[in-house]
Design brief:
Length: 414
Amino acid sequence: MAAENNGSVLIIATMDTKGEEALYLSKCLKELGLEPLIMDPGIRGNPDFPVYVSRDTVAKRGGMTLSEVQMIPHEGDALNAMITGSVIIVKELCDQGMIRGVIALGGSMGTTLASAVMRALPFGFPKVMISTMASRNTRAFVGTRDIVMMHSVCDIAGLNPMTRRVIANGAGAVAGMVNAGGRIKQERGNLRQVALSTLGTTEACAARLREALAAGGFEVVTFHTNGAGGQAMEEMIEEGEFDMVIDLSLHEIADNFYGGEYDSGALRGTAALRKGIPAILVPGNVDFIVTGPLADARIKFPSRRYHAHNAAITVTETSAAEMAELGGRLAEISEGAHGPVFILVPSRGFSAFGDKRGPFYNPARPAKFIEGLTDRLKDPGILKIFPCHINDEEFSAGILSCLRAMWKVLKNPG
């Protein structure tokens, strides 16, 4: 017997190829007390299944008729047309409170479409993707969102004992998220939220900051600056999630400039400044570039010092010229500030790899960064240089002192 209805969940499925499976998923959700709504963004065939949002509607919201989409010769272009309409529709359903979660099933094309829709939905909104692609590198699908990728193991082609089990588990997963979300009230109250970026090589500093900020009534959200992490932080800053930012690890700027693995785009480090919220910028971890295996690093960056972090990741020392260039880039970023900003620089090293016991120790290298920074910096009053290493207690204390001063001014303007 079905439980009490706990809300609507949207099923995204191309009904020409996944109709039978979508109906089974719908049945599973009903048994769990949820109301399933099916959206069909398919293009081919003439499926005869009941749906909440038809393929004609999806195409129309994307600015085309279904016939026009079907005439597009390249399947990728046709898919993009249906993605446009799907995103518009699902965002509206979410914004209007019509749905409490979304679940989809698909192969490569279905996963591409459904995950694009999910990436447009807010953090915390339940998103489950049952996919044949979930055993691969899923960054292209997940991006910076909290999407649960469930590997279907076998192809999603008809109902059998394996597909039934996987689909039922997916239904259970999204139902659990929906029900848990109803019980857990995300209330920030008067807590001030701080975004903090870091990597393991600046974690000693980050840990002291988290402890002190928590004791002072701040709530800290930490982002691992591995490319996706920095991008996620920038997006959440834009969405208004944070009151302040401590960008302790601006390493992704180096990888963006020089083709490293942890590239998060050309706008890294700019969101807080555009929003006008207090920001502290620190050149943490810019003394290295993340590359792939050691053999690849030696080809891409010859005649450097390397550190093989593991079999898949090598870090390569940033050159003196690159350090100066990165200093200039940070000065350029600071010019876009619409609120209080400080650049804090530890003059004796920017990461654990650059301390006296590290593989990239070079006491002259931070000076090159500072030189490039000061040459381009239009407002020297925002720069504070500390005669210590980034992981020294003196530096974390300096960050906290600066942050408290910024917050005090905001609370008591004039």
